[in-house]
Amino acid sequence: MKSTKLGSLLIALILAAVGFFILPVLSADNASASPFLAIGILIGAVVVLLTSGEASSSTGGNAVQSDERQTLYVGNLPYRANEAVVRELFENHGSVYSVRLVKDKQTGRRRGFGFVTMDPQGAQDAMAKLNDNEFQERVLKVREAKEKTSPENSSQVTD
């Protein structure tokens, strides 16, 4: 979505520059450049409106809703479960954007928990249906993920 806005702005600026620099040269009576600048800006505004209308209609007018995501914490995962299997399990409940299973830095083995990012409605459905349910002989814990905290705040030791 940001690239569409940036592209539209770029087009508007180019058209304004064309109106300011090129059109007065083409005119026969050496008129002031101001009207041509205004014409370039108006043309640019029309192009921006048309391109932003195309972007919202191509997404069904719900560009903001399609960008909404919710991250779930998934605990007590079987160690043999991989990203593909977890993705398949959660895709039964909604659109899955990403699956990240946490591994131990030293051994490279999975630690038995991970995070799934999906659409909010699917996330609510997955929490309701998968929490405390058995998956590959383990009872899953599915909850809304908490925000990351900085390392300084999360493990302070007091004397």
Q: How would the blueprint of this fold be written?
A:
Layout lengths: L1 H25 L7 H25 L4 H4 L3 E6 L7 H9 L4 E8 L6 E9 L1 H11 L3 E2 L2 E2 L1 E4 L6 H4 L5
Antiparallel strand pairs: 1-3, 1-6, 2-3, 4-5
Short recap of the structure:
The protein is of the alpha+beta class and 159 residues long. The chain has helices at 2-26, 34-58, 63-66, 83-91, 120-130, 151-154, and strands at residues 70-75, 96-103, 110-118, 134-135, 138-139, 141-144. The protein contains 6 helices and 6 strands; from the N terminus they run αααβαββαβββα.
Question: Could you please describe the fold and organization of this structure?
Answer:
The chain is an alpha+beta fold. Helices cover 49% and strands 19% of the residues. It has a four-stranded antiparallel beta sheet with strand order 2-3-1-6. The chain has a two-stranded antiparallel ribbon with strand order 4-5. A hairpin with a 6-residue loop joins strand 2 and strand 3 (110-118). The radius of gyration is 26 Å and the shape is elongated. It starts with a helix and ends in a 5-residue tail after the last helix. Mean pLDDT is 77; it is low at 55-65 and 153-159.
